């Protein structure tokens, strides 16, 4: 994975072997995974000089290093390796210099040592040199190095430190910090638990990018050494070059067997990786180095990635041809084909995108031609790297190293179809880890599939894992009654909390009952029941393994006090508005919200309802989603300022349903008029 990323990454700089290979310098990402296929500057086994150094005993190495001028020569040699993208060799040389000589630990030396390990997949060693770099040269660190440092922090389990540094970085960029108030990653919560399994076909090298083929085959990319003779090595990671392999599915758990090279017509002496098949399985699209009779380099001197196509004719695959929207000067790779075969989604670092690598779409015409590529836009792409897309009838899955993930590349899901996708939601653990997780595919049942990861505990660099979703029956069912009369309480507001954070909300039905489904097993929750005119009640409950837990609550009627505050009243702070297509709290809105917070702190008997809205620009479905995010961010800000979460009765998003003016879809309106509709409103309620 790193290779693909690195390839794409050397172009964009991310990093895992598979990714390296996958996207030439940007095929993957900027983590320790070389998940991109980069320029192939070397194709021989480990450099003789590094071999010689490794062969010296400690005594002889110490004697060698004590000679005058040797340290400087080693640094020069390490820089030569680094400039050629031979990161495995560069890392070894820089380690020797930094750990065994008295040479000054300069900013340049520490940066290159950290980068060499980062691109070749050693996050622990990369963290060591980045951390020293931060301690010595904090104010002089480049922004991309700072970002890679935060990735190594998450990759080595230091999440809180990573969040703190991310906040510092965003402050330097003068960007909103509200989403960093909460360190936990927002993840997808479905009706299932996930069982994952490392597969027997994995090697000590990089194995990734699985793809369904026919009914019982899986085609994937691997750097496994299947040659009898000495195999050429990829300098970036000192592993063999990637080829495509095919294996058969063995059982319902997704095990594979009988792995063999996929096709001699498609595999070459350089990298072949991330692939997709047409619906009829007679056309394959795959990623390869820009390679004809020899490697070709762009104007920046880098060998980029391209997408190639081969067809199944007379029982064999034809010679591959490249697609017309490739370029000599940027990378194109990671194809996936829509279920009707009419669209291709792919990854590129072409100019005009939002980040390092973005996901694009093209139409596939019946005559074998293609439309111009279209960027999928801000709902999918960010300033980070998006890669490894996989499209189904109703969703797009992809990987990204965007901020506040678990670390490295995480896998995201965006609902939708035909280039209209919602904002991606992190699939959570155990699919994602603190390392690189990518090339996710799922079968037509929506229950089983495969993905790749370089997480700890695997067999090699990147490994392929199978997964199965298992029905999640964990639930809490409850009922609410009047303590004095024993009558059921209808329309009570029920809130579920975990570690002080609101997880879910419900309203009791006409029988006073409610249910919270799809909860985590063996987890402590708090259930808070509220109803106007009653004293709220809270109880703790712990879930079991796939069981429905039943709870019962009684609410005591409040004594009526003459001249009391009205049961509810609107509170209208001015200027609690949002920027276009954003749910971030602006500094002006924060000032207004602080007034509301003061009221709540001075009047402890008051609770709050939040109602958020959008303008009518864009689809109704997306605006509904955006308004819900605005309600969530408004609630999060208020809670972050010391307001008890249980005092917020609801935080609802209404999309474009409640416009304050007549700026409906299609009607020309001034920006200020649209802005009036991008708001949060509040209702104060006395208990």
UniProtKB/TrEMBL annotation:
Q: Where is it located?
A: Cell outer membrane
From the Swiss-Prot or TrEMBL record, give the protein name: Cell envelope biogenesis protein OmpA
Q: Show where the OmpA-like domain sits.
A: 565-687
Q: Where would one find the signal peptide in this protein?
A: 1-18
Q: Which keywords describe this protein according to UniProt?
A: Cell outer membrane, Membrane, Signal
Is Transmembrane included in the keywords of this UniProt record? Answer: no
- Entry GO terms, CC: cell outer membrane
The UniProt record lists the keyword Membrane: yes
Family matches, as InterPro entries: 6-blade_b-propeller_TolB-like (IPR011042), Bact_OuterMem_StrucFunc (IPR050330), Ig-like_fold (IPR013783), OMP_bac (IPR006664), OmpA-like (IPR006665), OmpA-like_sf (IPR036737), TPR-like_helical_dom_sf (IPR011990), WD40 (IPR011659)
> Which PANTHER family is this protein grouped with?
LIPOPROTEIN YIAD-RELATED (PTHR30329:SF21), STATOR ELEMENT OF FLAGELLAR MOTOR COMPLEX (PTHR30329)
Gene3D superfamilies, sorted: Immunoglobulins, OmpA-like domain, Tetratricopeptide repeat domain, TolB, C-terminal domain
Primary location class: membrane
Name the SUPFAM superfamilies on file.
Cna protein B-type domain, DPP6 N-terminal domain-like, OmpA-like, TPR-like
């Amino acid at each position: 994975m790193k290779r693909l990323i690195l390839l794409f990454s050397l172009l964009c700089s991310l990093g895992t072997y598979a990714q390296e290979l996958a996207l030439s310098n940007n095929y993957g990402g900027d983590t320790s995974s070389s998940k991109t296929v980069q320029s192939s500057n070397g194709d021989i086994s480990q450099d003789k000089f590094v071999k010689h150094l490794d062969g010296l005993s400690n005594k002889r190495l110490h004697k060698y290093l004590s000679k005058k001028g040797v340290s400087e020569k080693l640094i020069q040699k390490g820089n030569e390796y680094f400039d050629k993208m031979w990161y495995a060799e560069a890392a070894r040389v820089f380690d020797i210099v930094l750990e065994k000589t008295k040479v000054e630990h300069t900013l340049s030396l520490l940066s290159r040592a950290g980068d060499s390990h980062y691109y070749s997949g050693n996050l622990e060693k990369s963290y060591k040199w980045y951390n020293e770099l931060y301690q010595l040269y904090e104010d002089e660190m480049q922004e991309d190095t700072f970002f890679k440092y935060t990735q190594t922090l998450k990759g080595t389990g230091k999440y809180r430190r990573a969040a703190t540094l991310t906040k510092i970085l965003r402050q330097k960029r003068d960007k909103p910090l509200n989403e960093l108030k909460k360190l936990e990653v927002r993840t997808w919560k479905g009706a299932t638990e996930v069982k994952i399994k490392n597969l027997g076909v994995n090697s000590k090298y990089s194995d990734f990018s699985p793809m369904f083929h026919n009914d019982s085959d899986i085609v994937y990319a691997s750097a496994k050494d299947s040659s009898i003779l000495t195999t050429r090595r990829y300098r970036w990671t000192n592993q063999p070059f990637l080829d495509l392999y095919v294996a058969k599915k063995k059982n319902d758990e997704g095990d594979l067997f009988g792995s063999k090279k996929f096709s001699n017509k498609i595999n070459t002496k350089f990298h072949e990786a991330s692939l997709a098949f047409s619906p009829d399985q007679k056309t394959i699209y795959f990623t390869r180095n820009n390679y004809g009779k020899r490697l070709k380099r762009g104007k920046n001197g880098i060998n980029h990635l391209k997408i190639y196509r081969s067809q199944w004719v007379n029982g064999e695959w034809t010679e591959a041809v490249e697609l017309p929207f490739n370029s000599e000067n940027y990378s194109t790779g990671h194809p996936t084909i829509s279920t009707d075969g009419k669209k291709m989604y792919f990854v590129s670092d072409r100019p005009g995108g939002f980040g390092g690598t973005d996901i694009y779409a093209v139409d596939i015409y019946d005559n074998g031609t293609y439309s111009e590529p279209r960027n999928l836009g801000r709902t999918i792409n960010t300033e980070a790297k998006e890669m490894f897309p996989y499209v189904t009838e109703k969703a797009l899955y992809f990987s990204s190293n965007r901020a506040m993930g678990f670390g490295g590349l995480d896998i995201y899901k965006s609902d939708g179809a035909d280039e209209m996708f919602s904002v991606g939601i992190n699939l959570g653990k155990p699919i994602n880890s603190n390392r690189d997780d990518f090339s996710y595919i799922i079968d037509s049942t929506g229950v089983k599939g495969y993905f790749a990861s370089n997480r700890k505990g695997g067999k090699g660099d990147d490994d392929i894992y199978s997964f199965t979703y298992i029905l999640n029956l964990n639930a809490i069912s409850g009922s609410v009654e009047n303590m004095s009369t024993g009558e059921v309480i209808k329309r009570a507001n029920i809130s579920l909390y975990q570690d002080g954070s609101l997880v879910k909300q419900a309203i009791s039905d006409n029988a006073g009952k409610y249910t919270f489904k799809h909860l985590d097993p063996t987890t402590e929750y708090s259930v808070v029941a509220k109803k106007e005119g009653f004293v709220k009640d809270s109880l703790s409950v712990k879930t079991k393994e796939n069981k429905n837990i039943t709870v019962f609550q009684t609410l005591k009627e409040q004594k009526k006090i003459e001249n009391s505050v009205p049961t509810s009243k609107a509170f209208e702070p001015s200027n609690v508005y949002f920027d276009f297509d954003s749910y971030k709290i602006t500094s002006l809105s924060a000032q207004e919200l602080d007034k509301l917070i003061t009221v709540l702190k001075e009047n402890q008997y008051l609770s709050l309802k939040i109602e958020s809205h959008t303008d009518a620009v864009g689809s109704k479905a997306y605006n509904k989603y955006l308004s819900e995010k605005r309600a969530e961010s408004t609630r999060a800000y208020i809670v972050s300022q010391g307001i008890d979460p249980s005092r917020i009765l609801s935080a609802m998003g209404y999309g474009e349903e409640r416009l304050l003016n007549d700026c409906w879809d299609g009607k020309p309106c001034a920006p200020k008029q649209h802005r009036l509709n991008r708001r949060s409103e509040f209702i104060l309620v006395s208990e």
